């Protein structure tokens, strides 16, 4: 190994990140939290919208900044510290908000802090994959991240038991105080990992373009690089399809009831499938390549939707959602590295930002549309639309050719 410390830290990053996000999961915990505050489907859709909006809005702005950094890891660590300590403000003030301002005000204050938290998520892509690009060989990245994700999800099974203890044994609102506090503390530990990575200085990318010129040049990549364009099209439809994932638990709650047990069942199913999926799919990336592994994940998701359509009961819904979750796992493991494989090294942050901006912009609008689809047409129409999107994504990714493995 070129640098054992970097391999170890890159391995432990998904371990801590996954376990921290168990307590801030937008697909399970956040909907349950909003329902506990008497929130509606609108509030759940808005939370998802904010999560998606924040994850792309800063990307294109931060990409140029990342390009000009000789060393990126310590700057990224500082950004993560600001994000996670700022969310602690809401965590500590949450009981006060609820007692003195009421449930409705607390919902919107949470959405405000949650929106700020997610604005920082938009910095992840340009920083994270640019850092891995410098510290890990191309063919090893999927395996390191996959193994770390597998261990992280294995540990998360026990974290789910802790989450269940908080929900069922500690009275509201103090259960959610502990849930959010635990998750944020783990995420702060995760930020420390990036600070201690060893990253070599590199030549910085200089240009004299104005910001408007930079934006035009960035998006012109879609015209001059057909393989990147096909990747973006595939990831766009994939992102639209995966917006249905948070609504499996909402559908199960409305149709089958017993919310506490359903949250635990879905979380356990997602975690167990993520353990096996991360490890197996991560190992397959070295032999099959990132593109074929993503295609495999998409195929599993298509089967998942068919299961939901065919077996309209709780077990069928949970099993189908687990298979769709494997599509999500394959996306996390491969999409950034597929972009790395069709980009130039010096413009990698821009490629990542362009893809992220397009995919997440449309996904955020889809989250808002999902609420209307459910209200007027029903859950099964939403699931069918997502199935069709996934078919288009599967076809498009098959036309991509990886042009570079030197990054």
From TrEMBL:
Domain Major facilitator superfamily (MFS) profile intervals: 8-407
Keyword Cell cycle: no
GO molecular function: transmembrane transporter activity
SUPFAM superfamilies given in the database record: MFS general substrate transporter
Keyword Membrane: yes
Regions crossing the membrane: 7-35, 41-63, 75-101, 107-129, 150-167, 173-196, 227-250, 262-281, 293-311, 317-338, 350-373, 379-402
Protein name in UniProt: MFS transporter
Annotated source species: Dictyoglomus turgidum
Lineage: Bacteria, Pseudomonadati, Dictyoglomota, Dictyoglomia, Dictyoglomales
């Amino acid at each position: 190994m070129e640098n054992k410390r970097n391999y170890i830290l890159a391995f432990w990053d998904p371990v801590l990140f996954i376990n921290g996000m168990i307590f801030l999961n937008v697909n399970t915990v956040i909907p349950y939290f909003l329902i506990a505050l008497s929130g509606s489907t609108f509030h759940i859709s808005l939370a998802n919208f904010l999560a998606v909006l924040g994850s792309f809005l800063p990307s294109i702005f931060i990409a140029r900044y990342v390009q000009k950094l000789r060393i990126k890891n310590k700057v990224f660590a500082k950004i993560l510290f600001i994000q996670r300590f700022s969310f602690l403000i809401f965590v500590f003030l949450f009981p006060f908000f609820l007692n003195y301002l009421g449930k409705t005000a607390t919902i919107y204050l949470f959405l405000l802090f949650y929106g700020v938290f997610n604005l920082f998520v938009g910095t992840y892509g340009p920083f994270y994959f640019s850092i891995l690009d410098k510290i890990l060989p191309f063919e090893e990245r999927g395996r390191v991240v996959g193994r770390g994700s597998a261990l992280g999800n294995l540990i998360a099974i026990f974290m789910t038991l802790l989450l269940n203890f908080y929900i069922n044994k500690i009275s509201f609102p103090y259960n959610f105080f502990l849930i959010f506090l635990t998750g944020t503390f783990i995420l702060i530990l995760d930020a420390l990992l990036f600070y201690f990575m060893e990253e070599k200085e590199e030549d910085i990318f200089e240009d004299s373009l104005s910001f408007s010129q930079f934006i035009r040049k960035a998006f012109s990549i879609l015209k001059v690089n057909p393989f990147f364009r096909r990747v973006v099209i595939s990831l766009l439809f994939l992102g639209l399809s995966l917006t249905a994932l948070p609504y499996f638990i909402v559908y199960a709650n409305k149709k089958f009831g017993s919310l506490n047990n359903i949250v635990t069942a879905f979380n356990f199913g997602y975690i167990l499938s993520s353990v096996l999926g991360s490890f197996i799919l991560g190992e397959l990336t070295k032999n099959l390549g990132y593109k074929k592994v993503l295609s495999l994940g998409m195929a599993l998701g298509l089967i998942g939707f068919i299961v939901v359509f065919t077996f309209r009961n709780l077990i069928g819904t949970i099993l189908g959602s687990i298979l769709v979750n494997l599509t999500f796992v394959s996306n996390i493991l491969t999409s950034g590295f597929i972009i790395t494989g069709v980009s130039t090294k010096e413009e990698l942050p821009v490629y990542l930002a362009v893809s992220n901006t397009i995919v997440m912009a449309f996904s955020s609008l889809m989250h808002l549309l999902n609420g209307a689809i459910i209200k007027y047409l029903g859950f099964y129409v939403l699931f069918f639309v997502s199935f069709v999107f996934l078919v288009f994504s599967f076809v498009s990714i098959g036309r991509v050719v990886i042009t570079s493995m030197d990054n």
